[in-house]
Design goal:
By secondary structure, the chain is an alpha+beta fold. It has one domain. It has 6 helices and 5 strands. It has a 3-stranded antiparallel β-sheet with strand order 4-3-5. It has a two-stranded antiparallel sheet with strand order 1-2. α3 runs antiparallel to α4 and α3 packs antiparallel against α6. It starts with a strand and ends in a 9-residue tail after the last helix.
């Protein structure tokens, strides 16, 4: 299984290394992360990168609280593991219990009724960017 370094994934997850280290240290992320080894950079799997990209996008771009963003990402990782990743995430009123998943944008319009605030995320685009990152030829550091 191909893994990548933090430097390789930062452009896709749109966070800095301090954010990633903070999220890992706080124990908010649920996918299995490689333990650090002295003198060797931590490697990240495709699932790790998807989770990090979701948390980053939800918490920074959409001002969803970090804990809520991590809870939503955990649900998405479950869909990913089952092989049926939805195209859109819809969050009503920043509430992780009011999260729904949809295949098209008409569900976003329907979700707007009765909510103070509706946030949606194009999960298909994020998943595609992660896939493309892992489809590229392996870096020279992976050979180690």
């Amino acid at each position: 299984m191909k893994t990548l370094t933090l430097a390789e994934i930062l452009p896709v997850i749109e966070a800095d290394r301090f954010d990633v280290e903070n999220w890992l240290a706080r124990g908010l992320l649920t996918s299995d992360y490689e333990r650090t080894v002295r003198g060797r950079a931590r490697r990240y799997s495709k699932v790790n990168v998807l989770e990090l990209a979701l948390v980053s996008s939800l918490s920074s771009d959409r001002r969803i609280p970090l804990k809520t963003a991590a809870e939503i990402a955990e649900k998405v990782i479950g869909f990913h593991a089952a092989g049926n990743l939805p195209n859109i995430i819809i969050i009503r009123d920043f509430d992780p219990d009011k999260v729904s998943f949809a295949e098209d944008r008409t569900a976003v319009i329907e979700a707007m009724f009765g909510a103070k605030r509706v946030t949606f995320l194009d999960l298909a685009r994020i998943a595609q960017e992660v896939e493309e990152l892992f489809d590229e030829p392996a870096s020279s550091s992976e050979a180690a």
